[in-house]
Amino acid sequence: MNSTTVRFIRAAASASSALSPELGAGLLHRLFTTPQPRRMPERERVWMEGAVGSRLQLEDGRALQVWHWGEGGPSVLLVHGWGGAASQMAVFAEPLVALGCRVVAFDQPAHGSSDGKRTAVPDFARAIGAVTRAMGPFDGTIAHSLGASSALLALHQGASLGRLAAIAPAENLPGYLAHTAALLGFPESVMAPVKEQIAKRWGARVDDVRPGRFAPTLRAPGLVVHDADDREVAIAEGRAIADGWADATLLETQGLGHRRILRDPDVIAAVLGFVTRRSASIAA
Questions:
Q1: pLDDT tens digit string along 135-159?
Q2: Within 10 A of 2 (CB to CB), how many other CB atoms are there?
């Protein structure tokens, strides 16, 4: 958001919250669950070459844009994060196909070419579940940021995702809500009602959607990859998830940040090795 937009929102936050905490909470809820549009970089257009597109209808009437590469072989699912798109994860598609895999990616609700204007982590997880039922089960999954958090939630809920590589996974979702509220000028009085609104609309409380809390229940093998210089999701969050996940390995990097980590050759090699069970170099 530019400074003019932030000033406008802060004024609206102050005015609405003064009228009632519930009114202010409604505005914060809408802002927190509305992703900003994104332009596809040229490098991602190249990665998407050869992808076959289709539409997957959800039970609520919305449709997801789904892509796949390759035929036969082990199936791998790619899951993007908040504000991203399937094309962002397509960097993994060509090397996976070269290894004999079938690869599936999709635009999350309210992202890319999928339907919707608003979404949230529980909605992400339901979309993952729908794609898994329609095109899975998957032998492996590669997920980024809030997409990784959502994949962990979907796995916890029983989705067949196979070996899960979680790149820069977010753990402290209540903290992001509080940070957004403070940044946009909402008072503390809106926090309780906005959490109630989120729970009612999306079917889960923010405080319950914390992968670190349910990581001990996860039975699939995991790889958590996180960069020490990630300014969007602190590495402590990845460590917390890996610490609680019995069958997980933590791979820490440095100097890659939150998004460039997806394009790093060493990270790509480690993630591909993990999901295809060629993981001898990861343990080292």
A1: 999 999 999 999 999 999 999 999 9
A2: 7
- Mean pLDDT over 245-259 rounds to 97
CA 264 to chain centre: 19
Relative to beta strand 102-106, strand 63-69 is: antiparallel
User: Quick one: 41 exposed, middle or buried, by C-beta within 10 A (0-12, 13-18, 19+)?
Assistant: exposed
Q: Are 163 and 138 in contact (CB under 8 A)?
A: no
pTM score, two decimals? Answer: 0.93
CATH fit for domain 46-172+210-283, picks 3.40.50.620, 3.40.50.1820, 1.10.760.10, 3.40.50.800:
3.40.50.1820
From 91, 92, 80, 93, select the one nearest 38 (Cα to Cα).
80
Crossing angle for the helix pair 191-202 and 173-183, to the nearest 10 degrees: 130
Distances (CA, A) of 169 to 45, 223, 230, 258: 25, 11, 11, 10
